[in-house]
Design a protein that fits this description.
This protein is mainly β. The chain folds into seven domains: 177 residues, Galactose-binding domain-like (Jelly Rolls, Sandwich), CATH 2.60.120; 86 residues, Immunoglobulins (Immunoglobulin-like, Sandwich), CATH 2.60.40; 69 residues, Sandwich (Immunoglobulin-like); 101 residues, Immunoglobulin-like (Sandwich), CATH 2.60.40.10; 63 residues, no CATH class; 141 residues, no CATH class; 76 residues, Sandwich (Immunoglobulin-like). Strands 12, 14, 15, 16, 18 and 19 form a six-stranded mixed sheet that branches. A five-stranded antiparallel sheet has the order 1-4-9-6-7, with no helix packed on it. β18 and β19 form a beta hairpin. It is elongated and about 145 Å long. The N terminus is likely disordered. InterPro entries: Ig-like_fold, Secre_tail. Keywords: Signal. It comes from Fluviicola chungangensis. This is T9SS type A sorting domain-containing protein.
Length: 815
């Protein structure tokens, strides 16, 4: 029984071998020609191998038959071929010969290959089969087999080939992937062109997709179950939208193909993919299928301009004519139909949102919404509220001062978009912040200079409301009046009487003069003239005598700017006390700094174009943080002084008691006496110099040095003054100490009149400051050694009492 079974199997094997014939001549590289090929140089040229030749370069034969074999081991037997490429662009190709093939016959073409040694670089090698002797041009064609070889272990590469003609064929092997940055050497063995019997079942790939078009969010199922005769298979999926980018590869899987539900890359509407199923068995086969994610995207074709209420509007969207378009407003369906891409609607204010939903034949949907800007037929032009909401459109400013204001632009309907067109004659340098498209705050700022020409400037805004029914326009012109630098814009007088502080003979202001609103202002019998550019305002306490004249002249401080040097009449300033007193420990804000004042010329102080104010310590070191030596102005009226009508914090000439020490720290000096020299400079070289003392109290002069140690500022306790200076200083200090000790104000608190006692003289003056140290009154004579707080509100006041060249301060509470 076993004898007969053996015979059957033997006959089957003989039959199979007869049907499967290797048509490659010397595919194992075992046969040699026995003689050196003509023209060869090396003793191991591939030409030694029977039926093998060089196509490009000089490939090698590894076989005991060659005179001098190169290194390398074959995959099978004793012989193999060797080819390579290097970094200089040298590349080697070899080719062999087959027996005549039969037209229409399928052959399995295969070979074994490995790297001779490991390299970092990887290149694709391949095999091409042709009916004619190959030429170097074949290297630019697509080979039958192509693969990247990474291993030094032998691997088998194969593919099926159907002969077109019954002729001898030629097999070319080489690095079809091109040159490499380093030398790579390959060993090739067992090249075969094997006849496949006609009855052999070939692997057949079959692939389908669950849907050729997916809706966004759906998944595709790839079905390869109809494939046949495979022993292994491989999935590859490419994103064709991004240039055939491979984003999924399963690798070769043993067994038969089934289904696959992949996770798609970039699954957005409009993305397309190509899936490939490769099955392996006897030969291999590839099936592909393409599928896409539907892109039912649409857009409204609309210019975005406002529309008028209750007027028809034609709406249109993009899209495919085969889709269904459903138009809705809120929850109401307006119309629906295939290819219905246009619709006429009649919008109203507050109800103008329209949606279109498209449905593709695959059931995919997409919705776009459009909200129309609907304007009302009842339209009012835009309006503004003037400068800082006052309704006024004229701004006055002195040369060298800043202009800043806001104005609110309003509109009757917030869905109207306003276009603004500016127009101005203001020179460059101003800044504007425009409002929003529907209105809002407009801001303007401009820093004038002493060189800015006086006169009228304007910034004009033309506002278009773009109402689709009835557009309207408004024009807003902001006028800026620049007046002479020595002119105040407005000036206010209170508590001015012939017996107290009389009014000046002439007062000019660029815009307005106000007087007598809280305290008595009387001209008496004097000749007094007020000249203002816009208004003269009088309060209930105003008393005009027969010599008063009020003039409104729009060109005031514009056409009559004074040149203070053409009729210069000398310096002006209030009497300087000697010494000045600074006390940092008495909580009196009037003593925290010293200043030189000119209270009767507060806007054009000192009639000077410059000054030098030097303060020195006992070593004649300049306390150098107190102003600019030799500050010469370029225009008249560079300096100001505090006064009741000009309530600024301090004069242009002042010192806050700080100086800079050797480490760059701003510090207060030690308590003690310092010497000052004040020089005023006139228009034509005139000068006046004043000397005096400053006595500082309440400061220990200790400052933290950068190294952490305490350093003391110098004092004048050992002042090297001359005998006369020392005598004057001692007398002044003694008089101040006596005066400060004996001075008394009563009653305190008070409701009205305050009596002064302890002065030792009837020639006494007083001056009133608020609790922040701001000057509220001029230096006035204390008639009958008293003064009144009748016209002042309840609160705390600091009263400076002057007697001779000294003064003292008392705090008084008004009940």
């Amino acid at each position: 029984m076993s004898k007969y079974l053996f015979l059957v199997l033997l006959l089957l094997g003989i039959t199979a071998n007869a049907n499967a014939q290797d048509m490659m001549l010397n595919g194992s590289f075992e046969e040699c020609d026995g003689v050196a090929p003509s023209g060869t140089v090396d003793a191991y040229n591939i030409e030694y191998g029977a039926y093998w030749h060089n196509l490009i370069g000089t490939c090698d034969l590894i076989n005991p038959c060659v005179p001098n074999s190169v290194t390398g081991s074959s995959c099978f037997g004793a012989g193999c071929g060797r080819f390579g490429l290097n970094s200089t662009g040298y590349i080697e190709y070899l080719y062999g010969t087959t027996l005549p093939l039969t037209a229409g016959q399928i052959y399995e073409v295969s070979f074994w290959i490995k790297k001779d040694y490991t390299t970092e670089s990887l290149r694709r090698v391949g095999l091409a089969i042709t009916e004619t002797v190959p030429t170097p041009a074949i290297t630019s064609t697509t080979p039958l087999i192509s693969e990247v070889i990474t291993s030094t272990q032998c691997v088998k590469l194969k593919a099926c080939f159907t002969a077109q003609n019954s002729v001898t064929h030629y097999v070319t092997i080489g690095p079809f992937g091109g040159a490499a940055p380093e030398t790579i050497v390959y060993l090739v063995d067992s090249v075969s062109v094997m006849t496949i019997p006609p009855t052999t079942p070939l692997a057949q790939a079959s692939l389908s997709a669950s849907e050729p078009v997916l809706c966004f969010g759906e998944q595709v199922t790839l079905d390869g179950t109809a494939s046949a005769n495979e022993t292994s298979y491989e999935w590859n999926i490419y994103n064709t939208t991004t240039g055939n980018q491979l984003f999924y590869s399963s690798g070769i899987i043993q067994g038969t193909a089934g289904t696959l539900t992949p996770t798609l890359q970039f699954p957005i509407p409009g993305s397309c993919y190509r899936a490939e199923l490769t099955v392996y068995g006897v030969c291999k086969d590839v099936a592909t299928v393409e599928f896409c994610i539907a892109d039912p995207d649409i857009d409204f074709i609309f210019d975005g301009n406002p529309v008028c209420e209750n007027f028809p509007v034609d709406l249109q969207v993009t899209g495919d004519n085969g889709w269904v378009y459903t138009w809705t407003q809120t929850n109401d369906t307006l119309s629906s139909g295939v290819g219905l891409k246009t619709l006429t609607v009649t919008p109203t204010v507050g109800n103008a949102t329209y949606s279109v939903t498209v449905t593709t034949p695959e059931g995919c949907t997409h919705t776009e919404t459009l909200t129309l800007n609907v304007n009302s037929q009842n339209n009012i032009a835009p309006w503004m509220d003037g400068i800082n909401g006052t309704g006024e459109y004229t701004y006055y400013v002195s040369q060298g001062d800043a202009v800043f204001f806001n104005s609110l632009l309003s509109n009757d309907h917030p869905n109207e978009e306003i276009d603004l067109i500016p127009n101005t004659n203001i020179p460059p340098g101003f800044i504007t912040i425009p409002p929003g498209s529907s209105g809002g705050v407009f801001s303007f700022s401009w820093m004038t200079s002493l060189g800015t020409s006086v006169g009228e400037y304007y910034y004009q805004i033309t506002a278009f409301d773009n109402n689709a029914c009835d557009p309207d326009t408004s024009i807003f012109k902001f006028r800026i009046i620049v007046v002479c630098d020595q002119c105040p814009v407005c000036i206010s007088y209170e508590n001015r009487t012939p017996s107290g502080t009389p009014l000046p003979a002439e007062t000019k202001a660029g815009k307005c003069i106000q007087s007598g609103f809280t305290q008595v202002v009387s001209t008496g019998d004097a000749n007094v003239t007020f000249i203002a550019g816009k208004t003269l305002d009088y309060g209930t306490f105003w008393d005009a005598g027969p010599g008063y004249e009020g003039i409104i002249e729009p060109t005031t401080c514009i056409t009559d700017c004074e040149d203070c040097c053409s009729d210069w009449a000398g310096f002006t300033y209030d009497e300087l006390p000697n010494p000045f007193f600074m006390n940092f420990g008495d909580e009196d804000p009037t003593n925290d700094f010293i200043q030189v004042t000119d209270t009767y010329h507060p806007f054009c102080a000192f009639n000077a174009k410059g000054y030098s104010f030097e303060i020195v310590d006992n070593h004649q070191n300049l306390m150098n943080n107190i102003g600019s030596t030799g500050q010469i102005g370029s225009a008249c009226c560079s300096f100001e002084s505090p006064a009741p009508e000009n309530p600024i914090a301090h004069s242009s000439i002042w010192w806050d008691g700080y100086t800079e020490n050797m480490w760059g720290n701003n510090v207060r000096p030690n308590s003690g006496v310092y010497t000052y020299v004040l020089t005023l400079y006139g228009c034509n070289g005139q000068e006046v110099t004043m000397h005096g003392f400053i006595e500082v109290f309440g400061s220990n002069g200790m400052v933290q040095a950068p190294g952490g140690t305490q350093q003391a500022e110098a004092t004048l306790s050992d002042s090297p003054l001359g005998p006369e200076q020392q005598r004057q200083l001692e007398e002044s200090i003694a008089e101040h100490e006596r005066f400060d000790k004996e001075l008394s104000l009563s009653p305190n608190p008070t409701t009205d009149l305050v009596k002064i006692s302890g002065t030792g003289s009837d020639d006494v003056y007083y001056q009133i400051f608020d609790d922040k140290g701001v000057m509220l009154s001029h230096k006035e004579k204390a008639e009958n050694l008293s003064f009144s707080l009748t016209n002042y509100s309840k609160g705390t006041y600091y009263i400076r009492i002057y007697s001779g060249t000294t003064y003292a301060v008392r705090k008084v509470v008004k009940m």
